[in-house]
Design a protein that fits this description.
homodimer, about 425 residues, alpha+beta, BirA Bifunctional Protein, domain 2, Rossmann fold, 2 domains, 9-stranded mixed sheet, 5-stranded mixed sheet, 12 helices, 23 strands, about 30% strand
Chain lengths: ~425, ~425
C-alpha cells in the first residue's frame, strides 16, 4: 500500500477529548473516528489491527475445538425474562421497541441466546462436551463512555460458551479456555496474568480475569514476578496437564487492589519478587453451572436417560478493547511499536524524496515490488515530506521495521531499522530474510 | 471435522414456516436458527458458508483498490437529519432512544455516516479517487420478514462508497465496481445479469442491480441469452476497457417485469435467444453525485483551490442474502450442491459403519488425516447410521465431493463421487489430485 493512497487521516493536533495515550494515538493516526459518544468507526489502519487480533483469537479458539458461529446483535427480551436478567441488567442494556411494539434489546452478552440455541439443538450427553463461540458486536449504554475503545458503547467481543454433562467435565472445559487465553495473549506479545475474580452479573462460583500489564492501566496489580517464569509449552493438551497448569498459575500470588492485603503480599511473596504495577483487563472467564440452563429449561439426557440441566461456562475476550490495551502496553516516549503479529504492516519503506530528485522513490518502489512478491505486507511512504516529519509519523503508525532509502543506502544495501533499536546497513536479501523470520 | 462433533442440528421435519427451498434447507441442515421474527443465529455450517462468501467479496473489493474499514451499527439521528432522510425513511428504520433520551438508530445503510467520516478526513482532490467499504450488519424492521435470510431484519451486507472530484471520474469508479461485482458473482459459480434499475430511496440517476438466475426467484427476467457469452477476461483494468465492458453488458436486452414490454423484447431479441426466467437481486450499485455531499457539506478543494462537493456512489452486496440465493440457484430435486468456492467442506468421507464392524471407519480416519495433511477441509461422517440415510443427509449438506468407504473400496482405492454425477473407483492419490484442482 502506498501511503498517499491509504485512507489514514493523520492529525498533528493532540485531541483534547482523549485522556489516555491509546485514545490519543488512535485518533492522531486515524485508526478510529468517533461517530457519536462512545461509538466509533474503524478506519483502515485501525481495522487492520483489529482484524489481526480477531484472527489470533479465532485460531486459538479453534485450536481447543471450539466452533465458530454467529448470534445476532438484536435479541428478543423474552429469553432475558426467562433467565431473570431483563430487570436486573439496568440501564446499560440498550432497550428497543420495534415497529410492532415488541421489546427487543441490543445484546450486551449472550448467555441467554446461546442457551436458547442449545436447548433446541442438543438433547443427549453424547454430543458433549461442546464449546461454541462467536465474535460479534455488543452494546452497553455506558453513562460516561471514555478512554476511546477501552470503555465505549459499541464494542467487538469474542464470547464462548461451554456445555458439559457434569461439573467435573465443565471444569475441564474451563481449563481448556484458560490455556487458550494464555496462548492468545502470548501470541500478541502481551504479558497476561490470570487472576481469581468476582463473577458479578454473569454469576457462578469460579472466575478468572486476564490482566495485561500496562503502566497506565485501570487496576493496581500486586503480584509475584515468578508468574512470568511459567513456560506454557510445558503443558500438554490433556485434562491432567491443563489442570496442573491452572494450579501452577493460580498458586502464585497475583491480585488487584480490590483483593490486596499488605500482610498477605508480604507473607506470600519475597521482597525481591514483589511486583507492583498496573494492568488492564482483556479477558474474563466464568463457570456458572446451571445458572441459565436451569431457569431456561436447557435439559439433556444423561447416560441413564435422566434429564439434567447442562453445565455451562462463558468466556469473553474484548477484541476491540485489546487494540487500545496493546497500545497502552507498547506506546512509550512517543514511539508506538506494534507487536509483529498484529502490526498493520510488516514493514514500511521510507524514501527521502525531494521535488527535484525522485531517485530514492524509484528505488523504494523497486523494493516495494520485491517485498510484495515475497508476500510481505509493506507500506511505502511516497509522500513528499521531510524525513524528520516522516520519522515522527512512523513512530506513531508503529510499523516495527523500517527500510530507509536515503543517504546511507548504497546500491543494493539499505538502512534497516527496528523501531527502538539502532539501524544497520543490509542487503535487500538480508532484509527480506529478517522480515520473514 | 468429525460430523459427530460438529454442531449441526439436522432435522428430518420439513419446517412449516419455511415457504421457499433455501429457507427449508437452511433450517433442515441447521445452518441457521431463528431467534425472533426475521432474526437468525448462524450455526457453524451456515456461518462457514457465509464467511467464504464474505471473503470472496472482500478479495474482489480489494482487487479494485477499495479499502476496508468498519462503521458501527448504531448511529446518531443527527446525520440523517442533515441529509433529510430521517423523516423519509419510514418505519423500516429501527429507531432507538438511548438512556439519555438521544435519538439513535440501527443503520439500514451508511451513506450519511461515510459522508461524515469523509468530510472530516479529506480536504483535497489529491487524495481522490477513493473507495471505502465495510462488511457489517444492518437492520431493516420489515413488517413481514419472510423467506429466511432472503428477507430478514438483521442482515449482513457489504457496502462500498466511492469519492471522486468530477462526474466523469465518478463514472470510472462506478465501472470498476461493476467489473468487481461480475467477478465476485462469477467466483461463486453464479450467473449474474446487470440490469439498469431505479434508484429508489438511495437516489441518483445511474443504477444497476445484479440479478442471479434462480427458478424460484422473486423477479421475472426477460433477457437475451447472449449476455452470458460475454467473457469478462477480455477486459483490462483500465478506464477505457471498463467503459467498453459496461456498454457491452448494458446494450444486450435484459429487464425485469417492471420494465418489460413484449414489443421491445421481440424487437430486440431473436426468438431463439429469448430467455424467460426468474431471478434474485444480490447486488445493487448507485451513482448519486452530490446527493449527500451537498446537504452534508462534504467539500474538497479542486485543482484550482475551489471548494466543490465530492461526487459519490454507493455499492451494495447482500452477503447473508447470497447464502439463500445460492441455495435457490443450486438446490434441485432434493440435492444441494455447493459451488466449490463456498462449500462448507471441500469433501466428505462417508464410511459404511455397523455396530460390529468399524473397519471402514478406521480406513476413513486414515483418509481423513491424509487429506488434512494436504490442507483439504474434510468432513468425516462418523455417525452410526445406515448408508441410505447418510446419503440423503449429505445430499442436503451439499459438500460437492464424497469419498465413500464401503463395499466398492478395495485397498487404496475408494469410491469417489461428485454430487449429481456417477461415482468412480480411484486411488487416494488421484482423489487428492482431483480435490486440489
Amino acid at each position: 500500500m502506498y501511503l498517499s493512497k491509504l485512507f489514514v487521516p493523520i492529525t498533528k493536533d493532540l485531541p483534547a477529548e482523549a485522556k489516555i495515550k491509546s485514545h490519543q494515538l488512535m485518533l492522531r493516526t486515524g485508526m478510529i473516528k468517533q461517530s457519536s459518544a462512545g461509538i466509533y468507526s474503524w478506519l483502515p489502519l485501525g481495522f487492520k489491527v483489529m482484524k489481526k487480533i480477531e484472527q489470533i483469537v479465532r485460531e486459538e479458539q479453534n485450536a481447543i475445538g471450539a466452533q465458530e458461529m454467529l448470534m445476532p446483535t438484536i435479541q428478543s427480551s423474552e429469553i432475558w425474562k426467562e433467565s431473570g436478567r431483563y430487570n436486573d441488567y439496568g440501564e446499560e442494556m440498550l432497550r428497543i421497541k420495534d415497529r410492532q411494539g415488541r421489546e427487543m434489546l441490543y445484546g450486551p452478552t449472550n448467555e441467554e441466546l446461546i442457551t436458547d440455541v442449545f436447548r433446541s439443538s442438543v438433547k443427549s450427553y453424547k454430543a458433549l462436551p461442546q464449546i461454541l463461540y462467536h465474535i460479534q458486536w455488543k452494546f452497553r449504554d455506558e453513562i460516561r463512555p471514555r478512554f476511546g475503545v477501552m470503555r465505549c458503547k459499541e464494542f467487538f467481543m469474542k464470547d464462548a460458551y461451554s456445555f458439559d454433562l457434569s461439573d467435573e467435565d465443565a471444569r475441564k472445559s474451563y481449563n481448556k479456555m484458560f490455556y487458550s487465553y494464555l496462548k492468545t495473549f502470548n501470541r500478541m506479545g502481551l504479558k497476561a496474568i490470570p487472576m481469581a475474580a468476582d463473577t458479578g452479573p454473569i454469576g457462578g462460583d469460579l472466575s478468572h480475569e486476564f490482566i495485561i500489564l500496562a503502566e497506565t492501566g485501570e487496576s493496581k496489580i500486586y503480584a509475584d514476578k515468578n508468574i512470568f517464569k511459567i513456560d506454557l509449552n510445558q503443558y500438554k493438551f490433556n485434562d491432567a496437564s491443563l489442570q496442573k497448569m491452572r494450579e501452577d498459575f493460580t498458586k502464585i500470588y497475583a491480585v488487584t487492589d480490590e483483593k490486596y492485603k499488605e500482610v498477605d503480599f508480604n507473607k506470600n511473596v519475597k521482597k525481591e519478587n514483589q511486583m507492583l504495577t498496573k494492568g488492564i483487563e482483556v479477558g474474563h472467564i466464568f463457570y456458572f453451572s446451571d445458572k441459565y440452563s436451569k431457569p431456561m429449561n436447557c435439559l439433556i439426557d444423561d447416560k441413564k436417560g435422566k434429564k439434567t440441566s447442562v453445565k455451562m461456562g462463558s468466556y469473553g475476550i474484548g477484541v476491540s478493547r485489546l487494540v487500545g490495551a496493546i497500545i497502552e502496553a507498547n506506546y512509550n516516549d512517543n514511539v508506538m511499536k506494534w507487536p509483529k503479529t498484529i502490526s498493520p504492516f510488516d514493514a514500511v519503506i521510507i524514501p527521502s524524496i525531494t521535488k527535484n530528485n525522485k531517485e530514492n522513490l524509484e528505488k523504494a518502489e523497486k523494493i516495494y515490488s520485491e517485498l510484495k512478491k515475497q508476500n510481505i505486507d509493506v507500506l511505502l511512504d511516497d509522500v513528499d515530506e521531510n524525513m524528520s516529519n516522516k520519522f515522527k509519523k512512523h513512530d506513531l503508525i508503529g510499523t516495527p521495521y523500517q527500510i530507509i532509502v536515503g543517504l546511507k543506502s548504497k546500491g543494493d544495501n539499505f538502512e534497516f531499522k527496528e523501531l527502538n533499536s539502532k539501524s544497520e546497513i543490509l542487503s535487500l536479501s538480508k532484509i527480506i530474510k529478517k522480515l520473514k523470520k
